[in-house]
## 1
Amino acid sequence: MKKKMLLSLLFALGMLFGAAQNISSNSQSSPNIIIILTDDMGYADVGFNGCLDIPTPNIDKIASQGVKFTNAYVSYAVCGPSRAGLITGRYQDRFGFSRNPLFAPNDPNMGLPLTEETLAEALKKANYKSVVLGKWHLGAHESLRPLNRGFDDFFGFLSGGHEYFPENWTLQNEYEVKAQFDPYRTKLLRNNIRVEEEAYLTDALSREAVNYIEKYKNQPFFMYLAYNAPHAPLQATEKYLNRFDNIQDPKRKTYAAMVSAVDDGVGIILDKLEALNLSENTIVFFLSDNGGPEKTNGSDNGLLRGGKGDVFEGGIRIPFAMKWPKKISGGLVFDSPIISLDIFSTVIVQTQKIIQTKNKLDGVNLIPYLTGDNNEKPHELLFWRKFDQENYAIRNSSGDKIIGLKHGVKLFNLNENIGEDDTLIQNNTESLNELKNQYEKWNSQMITPVFLGLGYDKEYGEKHPNRFKKQNQN
Ligand code: CA
């Protein structure tokens, strides 16, 4: 009898152990996703793209333990539309997000339309928990805020930028805002609650990232860490400034300090993943939301022409690395063109539960191209449109790119002319016309902007005199 009981006990223990193992292996099979997005960082401002004056050893680890993409793009040359593309996996012009949104907490149409599905919403279908940290910029109206767009947690701010020192955060909430750039001084939000914070903003975001990894460690999670660094205003603490006695230019020096703070943050995040044994099955992406505005923040786009706001390479080609040790071997360099829209498409097919997305995606799953299972190129064509400026660009996978500006169209070959030097313009009218036709075809699927953006501050204010007033106080 005793023996039988012992056997049943052992059997039950075995079942429990087996079950526990199953739970553990199930939870391990859907990878965690971390997107680390910087703001207005130049193509040449990371070690893995050859930066010499700003060491970024932690960001570089993502490339050395995974892959660096040399021809990686975002879908727009400024913050808001680029983020709308990233978080939906779709060209933002499909849904009219063609401008940087104005800060308008009473306007349900000023931001990412509710017809769009965010990556957090898609991943929820596979039981992910999601958190966004830092800059939201996809709408300040209640219905457009992170907790209504698939995220379980939010720590950060709603506007397109923010002051970095907590002593400058003097506004209690969005209804104390009087003008477009006042939200830079609002107190931070944790979910729907304003918080008292004492840390330098970049450090606060890194600390929260580590804490949320701890919070979510037992289930698949998605973290969208949207640092506003190194976007203006240029503000850094002595701790980081002291690292750059080598840089004389005060603008570049502060910029370097801000990048260094981000790099420290990436370091503690990667360490946390290691400590929790999560590194192997966590996909980490690192990229900037657009090219560097070199004159404004002291960034450096290297050989690329132009910067933030341009459809030249300097505006849209960005530093981009990813790692996923479980599937991707380290030290890869991938030279074919890819785009930030690929993140969504890559991620949603790696989950254990199959995700049906709400809308048609524009990206591709990059993994087969990185493992060598597919030797084709991920994209034959990539497109950019700046609606208000009537600028556009399209490039193909062999390096031909046309730039359409108000006064004409130019053809460059990026393999021969990465700097898009006007003296090296191509005269191949066949290729030019072919790309132009392809652009027109794509453009015909896009729609006109659905909200007035940053360039329309005055016009919007006149139409909405109670823009910043709490609605029931009108
Ligand atoms: Ca930006």
Note: The domain at 31-379 is CATH 3.40.720.10 (Alkaline Phosphatase, subunit A).
## 2
Amino acid sequence: MIFKNIPEIKYEGPKSKNPLAFKFYDSDKIVLGKKMSEHLEFALSWWHTLGANGVDMFGQGTADKSLGKELNTMEHAKAKVDAGFEFMQKLGIKYFCFHDVDLVPEDADINVTNQRLDEISDYILEKMQGTDIKCLWGTANMFSNPRFMNGAGSTNDVEVYAFAAAQIKKALDITVKLGGRGYVFWGGREGYETLLNTDVKFELDNIARLMHMAVDYGRKIGFKDFYIEPKPKEPMKHQYDYDAATAIGFLKQYGLDKDFKLNIEANHATLAGHTFEHDLRIASINGMLGSIDANQGDPHLGWDTDEFPFDVYSATYCMLEVLKNGGLTGGFNFDAKTRRPSNTWEDTFEAYILGMDTFALGLLNAEKIIKDGRIEEFIKQKYASFNSTTVGKKVLNNEINLEELASYAANKKYCDKPCSGKQEYLESIINQILFGN
Ligand code: XUL
Ligand code: CO
């Protein structure tokens, strides 16, 4: 056992003062006909949880994640597997997500890295035996290695492009081997700093080519769910997959929309100047909401702080979108890390408890809002004129043209005022539902 002082984390209810217990996440509780754990398929992120040690631009790491082993060795890679499985089992988390190089130290020779990936995935498979833990999604890290400084799919150099392809192929192989449900493309360095050195069209075309190749190969090895994870900036100034709408436009333009859904990350949506729920809605109405990277940003900082979800309003609005979407094909990956001074393993357990409890609250609140019905009814009534009038029905059925609408307006002479938006009333309903009992 690695985390000797951490017990199995159980549900103790909202009154519990035990820091190592769930207050709201009650895995078997039935919500809208399904277990909470089925609504909320949480995943551990290998990179933050088992890798990140608090290093930032101004200082070295504060957390010891060596697990008593020498860093960047296969021994350490295996210790991370042991720690990860114990961590997930203690929290009742059933999924994990990884980048290729989160699993093993990368060698200069890609063949050596690939051998290491074979070895570690054998070890993970062994660990999976007898547990109900599975891989949610895998991906290739095509942004850390200096060869990707000008991008991966968007690189200027065909040799780098080939290495990106090789990493995608291997990451797909490993994901399939681990029974992974999805493969995510987050375009880490797929963007640019200045047009003075960039051919945007060339880069977009090449990214799409690489994605088509990945889909073709994925289909050959029986792979199903591909996702794009939009982000507007960081590390690049302009990132091509800016937000949900931009990514959807890209997928449609290049004929990839049938093969991809979106993995929406809260902190990425807010960096794009949107709310989390906005990007979820845009993905959802396009039939492309597949998965979520669960975290939150800080409104006072302009970067991707990847904090554990704490904002219950945001989680509530998120869960409303998820429920309306009929759930997710992916799940909720905690792409989140503790703050730099929260540097113990216990802090990381507590962070997951916070995140899981926050989403449980979001789910419970969303259920209440749906059952209450006032918000949904208000929205329905707001647009009622289109369903309750002859002219409105004609618009919806595409049976009227511009001239006919113009003569309708001329006949009416005066425009009836549209109904009030009633935002403050609706917000007070939300507060009443969240805090009323
Ligand atoms: C970076 C980010 C990534 C992706 C996977 O902002 O979110 O960790 O989730 O590459
Ligand atoms: Co992410």
Note: The pocket of cobalt (II) ion (ligand 2) is lined by residues 186, 229, 265, 293, 335 (CB under 6 Å).
